[in-house]
């Protein structure tokens, strides 16, 4: 006769496997619910932040009379692409201002990277008397509001003959406390063994800086380059104070030149110019996005 009674061990094993599968399925469902619970509000918040940009793009394709219609037309019935043609090639073209902004931003980025990396390396690795005191005093200058320095800088640049030149915008932007602080903190966290080995082999400080420290700091340098470019590109206050010739205006000042026959702002042209002005920032961020996120994450962990 055949014994039809199930083996007790196999029954226990089947129950354990079934319980394990159920627990895994439950955990998977919880993870999905948690993901949706975080994802949906974040997507809604992102849409709220994107609404002004959507309004800007929509208005840039409308005639001025339709810019403030109620209710708003998100999709123009007859897209007015002539606004972009007028902004680029019309009498008040933004191309000269665009070129000035690119020149100022590139020069400020190059100068900032050069001074911040060298100063950060010196404060982090070179032993000299009063190093920490000088660094703290340098950090303390950031407590002074920039607006308080506008008048002294105005007088100083006027005496030097730099007023109403792009150098009045470029030179102050080449030296920032934040850039030096970020690079100093990054170099302090780096291991010293390779540098000490290079010194034993007779390498000088600049060789150690350029061959050992600088290559490892490329993520932080990329992040600093993005921040400096964005600050320079969006700077409105400094050009407003130090520039008077419209031919030397940067893009933020150039955006104010689009007015209608009554002297009021022309919404269509202004928004078309604003759309074009944000494209370089988007391009720079997309190119350096991974390095920027990597640098910020690494700095937070350290």
Automatic annotation (TrEMBL):
Family statement: Belongs to the binding-protein-dependent transport system permease family.
Q: How does it sit in the membrane?
A: Multi-pass membrane protein
Q: Which Pfam families match?
A: BPD_transp_1
Q: Indicate the segments forming the ABC transmembrane type-1 domain, all copies.
A: 98-288
Annotated GO biological process: transmembrane transport
- Keywords for the protein's UniProt record, in alphabetical order: Cell membrane, Membrane, Transmembrane, Transmembrane helix, Transport
- The domain of life for this entry's organism is Bacteria
User: What is the protein's given name?
Assistant: Carbohydrate ABC transporter permease
- Extent of the signal sequence: none
Location(s) in or outside the cell: Cell membrane
The family database entries (PANTHER family) matched by this protein are listed as: ABC TRANSPORTER PERMEASE PROTEIN MG189-RELATED, ABC TRANSPORTER PERMEASE PROTEIN MG189-RELATED-RELATED
Supply the InterPro entries for this chain.
Answer: MetI-like, MetI-like_sf
What does UniProt give as GO cellular component? Answer: plasma membrane
């Amino acid at each position: 006769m055949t014994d039809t009674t199930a083996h007790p061990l196999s029954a226990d094993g089947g129950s354990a496997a079934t319980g394990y599968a159920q627990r895994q399925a439950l955990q998977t469902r919880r993870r999905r619910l948690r993901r949706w619970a975080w994802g949906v509000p974040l997507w809604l918040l992102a849409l709220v932040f994107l609404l002004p940009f959507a309004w800007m793009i929509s208005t840039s394709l409308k005639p001025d009379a339709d810019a403030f219609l109620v209710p708003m037309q998100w999709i123009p019935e007859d897209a007015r692409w002539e606004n972009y043609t007028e902004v680029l090639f019309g009498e008040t073209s933004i191309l000269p201002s665009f070129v000035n902004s690119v020149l100022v931003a590139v020069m400020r980025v190059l100068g900032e990277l050069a001074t911040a990396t060298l100063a950060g390396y010196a404060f982090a690795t070179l032993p000299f008397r009063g190093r920490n005191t000088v660094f703290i005093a340098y950090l303390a200058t950031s407590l002074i509001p920039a607006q308080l320095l506008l008048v002294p800088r105005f007088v100083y640049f006027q005496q030097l003959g730099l007023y109403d030149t792009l150098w009045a915008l470029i030179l102050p932007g080449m030296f920032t406390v934040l850039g030096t602080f970020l690079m100093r903190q990054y170099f302090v966290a780096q291991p010293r063994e390779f540098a000490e080995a290079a010194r034993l082999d007779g390498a000088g400080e600049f060789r150690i800086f350029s061959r050992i420290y600088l290559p490892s700091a490329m993520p932080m340098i990329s992040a600093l380059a993005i921040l400096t470019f964005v600050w320079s590109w969006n700077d409105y206050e400094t050009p407003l104070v130090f520039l008077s010739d419209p031919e030397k205006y940067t893009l933020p000042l150039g955006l104010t030149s689009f007015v209608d026959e009554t002297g009021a702002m022309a919404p269509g042209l202004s928004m078309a110019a604003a759309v074009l002005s944000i494209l370089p920032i988007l391009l720079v961020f997309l190119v350096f996005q991974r390095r920027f996120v990597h640098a910020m994450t690494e700095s937070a962990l350290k």
